[in-house]
């Protein structure tokens, strides 16, 4: 019944039109970044760059004080990796204990953790800011990774917990019978079985941390640990309307995640929907 | 006599939970030790510290005149009286709710239309899916700058409108108090359509083709099939997608900060931008905390209302 008919073709054409309209901003982004400063201001935006140049990229990499673009990339990578590792190690262990132990306490604690998904972090940020300032963690990548790990922990526990309930306990029982310690059972049997959940959590939380602007704006603004969005923000605020340079910065900032997405697009999409279904 | 000694098998083998039903593992003798509470401690302490202790302290600041440094006084409900008398705050609450609701509706409707379009038969669906999803993974702040360029007075959008002869439709989008908020909405929608789309695609994958075929054979048209078969089966996807878009919409910050900074004249200020400015730019930690408390209450009420509206009405029937 659902053969490829002329209606399917029409649908396909309309979808391509929609997709191309959606992608127009990327054309403007690349096109403008390749223009000279004079052309970027004087020529219409849609007109292809007549003599494309990479000057804006060179400009962007040569300027900048303490918080340069490359440093921002590096900081973002370090903080994202730290937070994701923390969430995987501590989140999976916590979800394991909370969902496998069947006492009333574990159930109550599990739901108390989940409350953190709904309540926005804003209210806690002020005391965290003051606390971090007091112990000197303001402007430190390590402190930032710890804050993210704690902020996103409820989400990680929720996703791991949902997945863990679908994993049969028989594996663990036979491992115990074979003489494995609880730690070994967990590390060698349970954790590998959680790989799909680990993938989902890495992708979801990694994207949240990598793209977050609000938290680092508060904790890292003006420090040498500023992440990419904060660096982009301070650059652009200074450039006002030098659109070719602004767009060169944006391209540098967007390329890593875009490349990663295009390489692993299936995993990204599965990560989003896989985690959401449970 | 052997026959009487045979015990029916199913009285020995305990009943397994029905497949597909979510159930916790049955309580059983402590055959296996599932880790120790110590393993959970780092995560639990982190959650306790950030989501409980810090939030409670933040809530307490709401009743002080704390400036971020030095001592402070307890001033009761003064901060809240100030919020009630602050027209700008009310404007920002209105803007936040408008953005969140409009964003939720448009993103989900367009996302679902795209998902339905992509669902069956389209040959290039994988590449289309990838292209339409790409904006989701990008930094909202960076994306906002691209759109700030597009919405400029002498920018591409006005150029296109002029080229089409629609000069009446041209506006100073970002500087016009009426239109500025729609530019924010446009970025939010553009970036998140793909997310709604893949959630609905995942939901549509669970709709059995046979049921649709049976309905079609019985004479149900496309709309009737959508309304009576597809949409009810998409209920979980609708619940998830609306939850995500609602919370995202209420928390909107990056796009406002990147496009308009809350201007012109607070026309695009949202609760998040006001909280940020009052707390960290103006150093009014007490007042900012009171605003955050109001914000938290709004988010929790909205989330509860949304859960109620999109609940599975057939559950338990």
Automatic annotation (TrEMBL), chain A:
Residues 73-264 form the ABC transmembrane type-1 domain. It is a multi-pass membrane protein. Keywords: Cell membrane, Membrane, Transmembrane, Transmembrane helix, Transport. GO terms for cellular component: plasma membrane. Gene3D superfamilies: MetI-like. InterPro entries: MetI-like, MetI-like_sf. The chain crosses the membrane at residues 13-30, 69-98, 110-130, 142-163, 189-210, 217-236, 242-263. It is found in: Cell membrane. Coiled coil: none annotated. One of its GO terms (biological process) is transmembrane transport. Belongs to the binding-protein-dependent transport system permease family. This is Carbohydrate ABC transporter permease. It comes from Naasia lichenicola. The lineage of its organism: Bacteria, Bacillati, Actinomycetota, Actinomycetes, Micrococcales.
TrEMBL record, chain B:
One of its GO terms (cellular component) is plasma membrane. It holds the Pfam family BPD_transp_1. Residues 1-27 are annotated as: Disordered. InterPro entries: ABC_transporter_permease, MetI-like, MetI-like_sf. It is found in: Cell membrane. CDD domains: TM_PBP2. The chain crosses the membrane at residues 37-63, 97-118, 130-151, 179-202, 285-309. Coiled coil: none annotated. It comes from the Bacteria. One of its GO terms (biological process) is transmembrane transport. Keywords: Cell membrane, Membrane, Transmembrane, Transmembrane helix, Transport. Its main location: membrane. It is a multi-pass membrane protein. Residues 93-306 form the ABC transmembrane type-1 domain. PROSITE patterns: ABC_TM1. PANTHER family: ABC TRANSPORTER PERMEASE PROTEIN (PTHR30193), INNER MEMBRANE ABC TRANSPORTER PERMEASE PROTEIN YCJO (PTHR30193:SF37). Belongs to the binding-protein-dependent transport system permease family. This is Sugar ABC transporter permease. It comes from Naasia lichenicola.
């Amino acid at each position: 019944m659902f053969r490829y008919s002329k209606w399917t073709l029409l649908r396909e054409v309309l979808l391509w039109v929609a997709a191309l309209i959606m992608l127009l901003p990327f054309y403007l982004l690349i096109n403008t970044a390749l223009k000279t400063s004079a052309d970027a201001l004087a020529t219409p935006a849609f007109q292809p760059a007549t003599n494309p140049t990479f000057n804006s990229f060179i400009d962007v990499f040569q300027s900048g004080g303490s918080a340069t673009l490359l440093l921002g990339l590096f900081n973002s990578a370090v903080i994202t990796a730290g937070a994701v590792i923390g969430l995987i190690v501590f989140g999976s262990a916590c979800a394991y204990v909370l969902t496998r132990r069947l006492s009333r306490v574990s159930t109550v604690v599990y739901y108390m953790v989940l409350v953190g998904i709904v309540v926005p972090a804003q209210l806690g940020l002020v005391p965290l800011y003051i606390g971090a300032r007091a112990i000197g963690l303001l402007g430190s990548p390590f402190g930032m990774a710890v804050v993210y790990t704690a902020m996103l922990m409820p989400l990680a526990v929720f996703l791991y917990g949902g997945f863990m309930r679908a994993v049969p306990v028989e594996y663990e029982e036979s491992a115990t019978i074979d003489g494995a310690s609880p730690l070994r059972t967990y590390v060698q049997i349970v954790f590998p079985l959680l790989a799909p959940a680990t993938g989902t959590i890495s992708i979801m939380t990694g994207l949240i941390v990598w793209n977050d602007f609000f938290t680092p704006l508060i904790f890292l603004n003006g420090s040498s640990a500023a992440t990419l969005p904060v660096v982009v923000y301070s650059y652009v605020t200074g450039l006002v309307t030098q659109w070719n340079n602004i767009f060169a910065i944006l391209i540098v900032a967007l390329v890593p995640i875009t490349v990663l997405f295009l390489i692993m697009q299936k995993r990204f999409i599965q990560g989003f929907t896989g985690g959401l279904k449970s | 006599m052997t026959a009487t000694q045979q015990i029916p098998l199913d009285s020995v083998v305990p009943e397994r939970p029905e497949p597909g039903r979510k159930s916790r593992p049955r309580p059983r003798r402590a055959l296996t030790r599932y880790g120790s509470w110590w393993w959970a401690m780092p995560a639990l302490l982190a959650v306790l510290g950030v989501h409980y202790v810090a939030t409670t302290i933040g809530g307490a600041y709401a009743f002080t005149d704390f400036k971020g440094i030095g001592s402070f006084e307890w001033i009761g409900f003064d901060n809240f009286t100030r919020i009630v008398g602050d027209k700008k705050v009310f404007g920002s609450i209105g803007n936040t709710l408008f953005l969140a609701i409009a964003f939720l509706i448009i993103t989900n409707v367009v996302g679902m239309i795209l998902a339905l379009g992509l669902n069956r038969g389209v040959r290039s669906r994988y590449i289309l899916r990838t292209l339409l999803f790409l904006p989701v993974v990008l930094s909202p702040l960076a994306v906002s700058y691209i759109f700030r360029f597009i919405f400029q007075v002498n920018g591409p959008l006005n150029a296109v409108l002029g080229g089409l002869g629609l000069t009446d439709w041209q506006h100073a989008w970002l500087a016009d108090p009426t239109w500025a908020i729609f530019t924010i909405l446009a970025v939010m929608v553009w970036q998140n359509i793909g997310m709604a789309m893949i959630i609905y695609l995942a939901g549509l994958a669970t709709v059995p083709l046979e049921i649709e075929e049976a309905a079609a054979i019985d004479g149900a048209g496309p709309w009737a099939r959508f309304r009576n078969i597809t949409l009810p089966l998409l209920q979980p996807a609708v619940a998830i997608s609306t939850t995500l878009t609602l919370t995202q919409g209420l928390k909107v910050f990056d796009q406002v900060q990147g496009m308009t900074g809350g201007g012109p004249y607070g026309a695009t200020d949202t609760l998040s931008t006001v909280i940020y400015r009052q707390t960290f730019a103006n150093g009014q930690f007490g007042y900012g905390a009171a605003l955050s408390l109001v914000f938290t209450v709004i988010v929790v009420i909205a989330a509860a209302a949304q859960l109620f509206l999109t609940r599975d009405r057939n559950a338990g029937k």
